[in-house]
Amino acid sequence: MAMLKLGVLGSGAGSNMQSIVDAIAKGELDAEIKIVLSDVADAKILDRGRRHSIESMHLDCSPWKTKLEGGAEDECIEILKSRGVDTVVLAGFMRIVKPKLLAAFPNRVINIHPALLPAFPGVHGWTQALDYGCKVAGVTVHFVDAGTDSGPIIVQKAVPVLEDDTPESLHARIQVQEHIAYPEALRIIASGDYTIEGRRVRIGGR
Ligand code: GRF
After folding, report:
1. Ligand 1 centroid – CA 205 distance (Å)
2. Residue to substitute in 36, 46, 126, 175 for testing ligand 1 pocket (most ligand atoms within 8 angstroms of CB)
């Protein structure tokens, strides 16, 4: 059992990062957020980080629009390593991370995806579930591998799809569970009490 040293990467509002900050403050998660990085200069996640006195920086990822590669990837790794980060938390980070970052933090890059994977990878998982006519939707926290939303699953939570749901109302219901699921997954990682066997993350028994 060791305190996690987290580096958070996000592009948006940062509500998942907030749930991690809150879990740490309540003593429910043995971790410290060393740095927040965003590819979006005016992202709310950076304001949130600063409000909590966490070092929060814009990472210029140009010329790429959808991935973290090249000079920006090198810079990202260098920043994370120099802050002593051991676990990279993708919290609404809207870019594909590439093998170099994954190799720098083996089995230590975690993502949250707003769908019950392997259904509906990619963007707007909740809208995909609604359009498909699903009666159940949810959230997945998983280790990141070289694919898109395809790594071994740590935690999943389901929510019902209600008759009068809109994409917004369903996403809001999923986000309530996201904010429970991410601290829970990080607690498992902090405990060290798990093994990754192929696609399966076996929790407990170590
Ligand atoms: C969440 O729905 C998350 O599952 C997805 O992007 C959204 C980020 O929300 N990957 P926030 O920035 O954490 O509020």
Report:
1. 31
2. 175
Whole-prediction pTM value?
0.97
Instruction: Identify whether 52 is a catalytic site residue.
Output: no
State what percent of residues in the chain have pLDDT above 70.
100
Pick the CATH number of 111-206 from 3.30.1330.40, 3.40.50.720, 3.40.50.170, 3.40.50.1820: 3.40.50.170
Strands 31-38 and 87-90: unpaired
pLDDT average, residue stretch 37-57: 98
Task: Tell me how far apart the alpha carbons of residues 152 and 156 are, in angstroms, rounded to a whole number.
Answer: 11
**Is it the case that residue 7 has pLDDT exceeding 80?**
yes
* Ligand 1 atom nearest to CA at 45: 12
Which is the closest atom of ligand 1 to the Cα of 139? Answer: 4
